[in-house]
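hiii, so i know i said id send this last week but things got crazy w the move. better late than never?? heres the sequnce for the chain we talked about at the cafe, plus the structure i predicted for it. fair warning i was half asleep when i ran it
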Amino acid sequence: MIGIAQPIRVRDETPPPVAEVLAVYAGRSKDPLTNARGMARVRESLERGRSAAAQRRLAQRAARRTARSA
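okay and structure toks below
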């Protein structure tokens, strides 16, 4: 005789509300020098990512082109 399986319990893994997370930073003062430095770091990181993606695409195109001609 086949029994009925117990339902699987799913844990609640929802992230906390954004407002609750950001409330920790609400009272901080904004230092323009720190902000500028942070923005520059983010821009550099994005540029590195774009450059790496372009290199990857070029390598994939080259690999496809040589595979067809072989």
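btw The chain has a mean pLDDT of 85. thought thatd interest u
miss u guys!!
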